[in-house]
Automatic annotation (TrEMBL):
<dbReference type="InterPro" id="IPR007325">
    <property type="entry name" value="KFase/CYL"/>
</dbReference>
<comment type="similarity">
    <text>Belongs to the Cyclase 1 superfamily.</text>
</comment>
<dbReference type="InterPro" id="IPR037175">
    <property type="entry name" value="KFase_sf"/>
</dbReference>
<keyword id="KW-1133">Transmembrane helix</keyword>
<keyword id="KW-0472">Membrane</keyword>
<feature type="transmembrane region" description="Helical">
    <location>
        <begin position="43"/>
        <end position="64"/>
    </location>
</feature>
<dbReference type="GO" id="GO:0019441">
    <property type="term" value="P:L-tryptophan catabolic process to kynurenine"/>
</dbReference>
<keyword id="KW-0812">Transmembrane</keyword>
<dbReference type="Pfam" id="PF04199">
    <property type="entry name" value="Cyclase"/>
</dbReference>
<dbReference type="GO" id="GO:0004061">
    <property type="term" value="F:arylformamidase activity"/>
</dbReference>
<protein>
    <recommendedName>
        <fullName>Kynurenine formamidase</fullName>
    </recommendedName>
</protein>
Length: 305
């Protein structure tokens, strides 16, 4: 894997973002709903009017980091033992009789292969299919819960309630409204099947990798309101699980899963925004998903380290 190609920085959209933010703020604190020169011009609305101009002229653009969190789909893509592996079949790749170049392929794949989304209906009857998940659930702040240290000691390690509470304590934020991203350090093992899944055999009873505990999932649905849980392993339940309680608890509350998420170590624990865009397959229990994250550069405190 060529690491140079993965994260990249791009300072372009910051100005537009700031303009938007300034106008949005003005609208929030200003008395008039749309235009600035309102008849009852108070000090507050005057400040609100000046804010966009000040922001645009005074502030330099904030550079944003962009992180690609999806593995390439190819013959090396890892998957759950019982799934059909990803295959690309070249239909045409050359000069046609008409004299022009044409490249086209067909692909074959299980739905739960590589970097993908588990739609709520995967483990909960009647819950959202992948095409039904609202867009505002797919773009949300990332809460990165790091269990790298305990996963190094135990390859069946689990995110516990305590790990979730620690994230809230360290960042000073509540988990509500986030997509929780579990960082176990397993990304380093991709795409080595044995190192990543715990077995070179296609045997679901021999899997070993970290996940989230049943108790933590239950605590999340009882005490918090989150949109999804992503992980840098094959499944949000750990490898030894045979009855998938974490899937069942989360998905039943229309909380989606993201599995085989790449580059988890490139995210700050707080401050990034996740964009998780599954292929919009009608009625399906999941889909291959392009996931990316953005976060403002030069803000070391966001790393919480
Ligand atoms: C198509 O052809 C190009 C140029 O010969 C080659 O680089 C590329 O790998 C081919 N694509 C596939 C999918 O085989
Ligand atoms: C977070 O969500 C839970 C569950 O919906 C709710 O009870 C709690 O009040 C929320 N906390 C905050 C600070 O909004
Ligand atoms: Zn899945």
């Amino acid at each position: 894997m060529d690491k140079q190609q993965l994260g990249c920085s791009r300072p372009i959209p910051a100005k537009r973002y700031l303009v938007f933010f300034a106008f949005y703020t003005a609208e929030q604190i200003g008395t008039s709903k749309s235009s600035c020169p309102s008849r009852k011009m108070s000090l507050l609305s005057a400040v609100a009017c000046l804010l966009p101009i000040l922001t645009v002229t005074v502030c330099a653009p904030i550079p944003f980091e962009m992180v690609d969190m999806t593995y390439t789909f190819d013959e090396n893509t890892l998957f759950w033992p019982e799934q059909k592996k990803f295959e690309l079949a070249v239909k045409m790749n050359g000069t046609t009789k008409g004299g022009f170049w044409l490249q086209t392929e067909e692909y074959f794949s299980g739905i739960h292969v590589g970097t993908h989304m588990d739609a709520p209906c995967h483990f909960a009857k009647g819950r959202w299919t992948v095409d039904q998940i609202p867009l505002n659930h797919l773009v949300a702040p990332a809460a990165v819960v790091d269990i790298t240290k305990k996963a190094e000691l135990d390859r069946d390690a689990l995110v516990e309630i305590e790990d979730l509470q620690n994230w809230e304590m360290i960042t000073g934020h509540i988990l509500n409204g986030t997509i929780i991203m579990i960082r176990s350090g397993w990304g380093r093992r991709w795409p080595n099947r044995e190192a990543y899944t715990g077995t070179a055999d296609q045997d679901p009873t021999k899997l070993h990798f970290p996940g989230m505990s049943k108790a933590a999932a239950q605590w999340l649905v009882d005490r918090r309101r989150i949109y999804g849980v992503g992980i840098d392993t094959l499944s949000v339940d750990n490898g030894v699980s045979q009855d998938f309680p974490t899937h069942r608890i989360l998905l039943d509350k229309n909380i989606f899963g993201l599995e085989n998420v790449a580059n988890m170590e490139k995210l700050p624990i707080y401050g990034a925004t996740i964009y998780a865009m599954p292929m919009k397959v009608g009625k399906a229990s999941g889909a291959p998903t392009r996931i990316m994250a953005t976060y403002p550069k030069h803000l070391p405190f966001y790393w919480g380290k």
